[in-house]
Each structure stands twice: as C-alpha cells, then as structure tokens.
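Service request form, structural biology core

Requester: graduate student, group of Dr. S.
Request type: structure prediction, single chain
Budget code: on file
Notes: please return the result as structure tokens.

Sequence provided:
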Amino acid sequence: MVWNYRVIEHKRVFYIHEVYYNEDGAICAIFEDPMHPHGTSLEELKRDAEHFLLAFNKPVLKKGKIKFAEMVGINSKPVGRGIKYMRRTGLEPADPNEKKR
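Core staff response, request fulfilled:
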C-alpha cells in the first residue's frame, strides 16, 4: 500500500491528511486527523515539509465525498473493506461513534 499527503477540505477549512491507495491506485483510506510536518532532525523536518508541499500539486479532496475503494493486499487478496478513516496509532479503523477526548 502506498500513501501521500493530500489537501482535504472539510467545512470550508483546508487540512493536509495522509491518504492511502490500493494496488490499483484508488484511495482506500485516510488518516482521521490532519497531519503536521515533523522530524527527528532539521533535515527530516525539511524533507517532510517538502512532501507536504507536493499535496498542492494534486486536486483537493472534499471530506464526505471521497469514494473509498477496497483495500488490496499482497497478490491482490482483499485485506479489508470499508476502512475509511484510520487512527495515527496504526492501520486500524477509527470508530466514527467514538467521542473525541
């Protein structure tokens, strides 16, 4: 599975999220929370910020209108369906009914 940063519009505010693609290049998941540049050194922070800038070269996605494809794993075997938003702690689905803390 590959990913990149994308600009996502939500309620007329723009954010950058990690977006994941299946083997066919279709969007299969995004991280629930917006991302921010980070790194363990200034050089890593600079590289991450450069990756963020690449998000502006792609069309803006509108949250709530993203069409999610099936996740496809090694050898094109399905590994998940209906996973749309993921937590930062790993590739686990976010519970849309869970209250924010």
